[in-house]
Amino acid sequence: MHKLGVIVPYRNRYEHLVEFKTHIVQYLKSHNIDFEIIIVEQDDAKLFNRGMLLNIGFERAKQLECDYVVFHDVDMLPIDVDYSYSDIPLHLSTNFIIEEGEVERTIFDEYFGGVTMFPTALFEEIDGYSNKYWGWGYEDNDLLLRCSEKSIPLDTLKLKHLGKKKKSLKLNGNDAYVKSKNIIDLKNSSFSIFVSFYPDTLLLNHTKESDEFTIFSIPGYDFAISYTSFARYNFCAFDYKLTPHFINSNIKTNYKTNIILTYELLDKTIKVYQDGIFINETSQIKKFYSKYNTEEAFYLGVGKPDREKIPNFFKGYIDSFAYFDIALTDSEIVEIARNESEVLTKNFGKYKSSEFLKIYYDANYIKEYKLTDLSLNNNDGEIINCEIVDLDIDEFKYVNIPHRRSGLFKSLKHEENGFEAGKWKNQATRWNQLRFQNEVYNHISLLSRDGVSTLKYHMYGETTEENITHLNVGI
Asked: Where is 59: in which H helix or E strand?
């Protein structure tokens, strides 16, 4: 017979806690689960530390002879969830019923937070959560990395690297870019823009609140395609009132991908596609920022190279770029996005718009350190400080992700703490991001010096009522 420990990190959400305790007890009893509930309440002296509270709760669960645990946020009430024992870690919070006015919860491939199950032996093997993420975010990213490094069973996401696999420009993220004469007409014509690229592993600038690694830009108030420190593929442009219009992908790792923008003059909206799949569209843009059309140059691999504070250099690979003075159809977009061999100067498959091609670069066609404009419009791209390389990559990128057991939860309305309006809501999340991405991810030895085995905290008191234990701690 297995015994479950439900561990809940908690502070200052009394109404949620009351509802959670009533609901979870009834739910587990109705499903004949033998359980203990451990509420770990942190005092107000420091920023909230979810990982440390969960480690403290885990120690108590072991004392209560639980052989598996679920780390459970207080604002998630089970509706249809299987809490039965698993001998591998499982992510359970996969689906939500949200309350009116609540922001939809973001579920992404590597998400390992919310409600997560572990057998106690495997949680001990990874030494639990890190104790060093204060405020919101990244303790679950760290947890997934720990599992990966200790060869704990995980699922695998297979991402296909799209596009041609031959020559590419390698950009160093410091001073490498391509400069081209700006003939892109955002005023009088429909248009489409295509770019194929592969971002490098993120390395973030600790002096900035966020990072934008620009793949394509008409500078100023940048009309730009970027990969960001939020691990999102992003498009942003400004209208004549300097109102930003932006589209973000879901959180996705770096891989060889492509983005296509289309703008239909009659609709006056920009649609964004990744790998031929529609992401979203902007609200109506009646007129773009006026200086876009008067900018002398557009760039690949940077926002603007001579901009002192935020040039936004891109680190990674760019292999092709195209500009059309027509809005491509959905079927053409799919054809181009999945193309691995054809050049865009001739029609193929469902692609029929070669005659509307106004700029076309392919890194297999470089002469005198310039990208040859294959559209024959003589707008070659000047290459600055880029390496010309053979991009030797496998057909697929394999990404470790959690095994999932589908679960449906009611989400209690709560204040959003993470990604909001294109940025982190709290500075502490940026600090956590910098720690994980720049330090832990690149120095795996840090994982071994931080976890359940290094816990330090003060126990201020505890209460027990039936099988609910409430710990009050200072950390």
From this structure: helix 50-63
What single-letter amino acid sits at 265?
L
2 token code pair = 């297995």
Q: State how far the Cα of 54 lies from the Cα of 457, in Å rounded to an integer.
A: 12
Helix (H, G, I), strand (E, B) or coil at 208: coil
For the segment 407-433, the average pLDDT, to the nearest whole number, is 82
Two structure tokens written together for 389: 């390389």
Q: Which amino acid is at 94?
A: T
pLDDT tens digits, 273-282 = 999 999 999 9
Per the CB < 8 A criterion, the answer to whether 135 and 51 are in contact is no
pLDDT at position 314 over 70: yes
Pairing between β-strand 68-72 and β-strand 115-119 as defined by DSSP bridges? antiparallel
Under 8 Å CB-to-CB from 275, ≥6 apart: which residues? 162, 257, 258, 337, 338
8 Å CB contact between 387 and 169: yes
Provide mean pLDDT across the span 338-363: 96
Residues in CB range of 323: below 8 A, 6 or more apart = 183, 184, 191, 192, 193, 194, 357, 358, 359, 360
Least confident range of 25-34, 57-66, 335-344, 420-429: 420-429
Task: Summarize pLDDT for 107-165 with one digit per residue, the tens.
Answer: 889 999 999 999 999 999 999 999 999 998 999 999 999 999 999 999 999 999 998 87
Helix (DSSP H) and strand (DSSP E) numbers for the chain: 6, 31
- Per-residue confidence at 422, pLDDT binned at 50, 70, 90? low
Give the tokens for residue 236. 């942003």
**What is the maximum span of the chain, computed from C-alpha positions, in angstroms?**
79
| Interacting residues of 355 by C-beta distance below 8 A, sequence separation 6+ | none
Q: Which residues pair with 5 in a beta bridge?
A: 36, 69
Give dist(CA 247, CA 274) in Å, integer. 11
Element (H, E) at 332: helix 330-337
> Nearest-CA neighbor of 169 among 448, 464, 345, 385?
385
Q: Is 216 left (phi over 0), alpha (psi -120 to 50) or beta?
A: beta
Which residues 6+ apart lie within 8 Å of 335 measured at CB? 276, 348, 349, 350, 351
Closest by Cα among 448, 475, 452, 463 to 59: 452
Q: What is the pLDDT of residue 203?
A: 84
Q: Are strands 468-474 and 35-42 parallel, antiparallel or unpaired?
A: parallel
How far apart, in whole angstroms, are the C-alpha atoms of residue 163 and residue 342? Answer: 10
Q: How far apart are CA 212 and CA 200, in angstroms?
A: 13
The model's pLDDT over 315-333, given as tens digits with 9 standing for 90+, comes to 999 999 999 999 999 999 9
Using CA atoms, how far apart are residues 279 and 250, in angstroms rounded to an integer?
A: 9
Question: Apex CA 197: angle with CA 195 and CA 202, to 5°?
Answer: 135
Backbone angles phi, psi at 228, to 5 degrees: -115, 170
